[in-house]
Amino acid sequence: MQTIDLRSDTVTRPTDAMREAMLRAPVGDDVYGEDPTVNALQERLAADLGFAAALFVPTGTQSNLLALMSHCERGDEYIVGADAHTYRFEGGGAAVLGSIQPQPIPQEADGTLPLDKVEAAIKPIDPHFARSRLLALENTWHGRPLPFDYLGKARELASRRGLGFHLDGARLFNAAVAYGRPARDVVAGFDSVSVCFSKGLGAPVGSVLLGSTDLIERAKRWRKVAGGGWRQAGMLAAAALHALDHHVARLAEDHARAARLAEGLGTIDGLTVKGCHTNMVFVDVPAARLADLATHTAAHGVRLSIGYLPSIRLVTHLDVDDAAIERTIAAFASFAY
Ligand SMILES: *Cc1c(COP(=O)(O)O)cnc(C)c1O
Fold first, then answer.
1. Is 99 in the pocket of ligand 1 (CB under 6 A)?
2. Does 22 score more than 90 pLDDT?
């Protein structure tokens, strides 16, 4: 019985075609800027998304950290969602490594930071206060594409108040597919964007940070300081290039499968489908039954992640097909809640 792993879209393994592309990739020493495949990836994504420069890095956490450290200096502050990945799930790196103070703002259910609250949080220029320097958004957020018109409004505020504007676009392409718009339109107006290749796009490793030439120069320096200056990384960049060619449009299949999963789970007594957004389904069951449910589904070959969020989060991805969705629904249906 093949295991169906719905814990995250990070669990995908490279396809045979992706491994083939990795094997064939021309490589060089990227610290010298001499890896042709890394350079091709950086140039291509920068051109596609409308930025002057890009930097390939090992993880999304590092990519966000380099962005924060390139926008802000010691004693500066960035304004961020209280439930944003950079604030909650990156070990406090901005503060620990960047001496950057986060100013978290409670988010609405759709993931937006109310702009009046953002504006009220911007500190006056005065030695008593950290200097407010940056507004950071996340899209998608827990699978939700932010309302498209919100992006422009947030941009307007950032510009008017002289803040930099960063996007944690770990799942940018899921958002673009959900909006039915080119990814370029989704990142328009941001000063920097971080994109993950190791989530729904199915690459084993890698994220790209995009920005101006100056910002990326600073980020490159911080990447070296953080120990992220890598050498023949072209084999990994080849996987990301392969993903751009073959795994972007198909994200729509993941979204359709999540919708089918939500529909199937919605017919089961004892559980509540809280939401279905792009490739994520959120389900509530009585808290006392959570651990038993996970044991039960595991016995049916379905792996779940429980404990990080109040709801169970089920994530569809490249390695989850239609049959896996039906098997998952059956596994949930055969549990006594
Ligand atoms: C996964 C993720 C990241 C970065 O994660 P890494 O595991 O460090 O690559 C950043 N932001 C969001 C929203 C994510 O989901």
1. no
2. yes
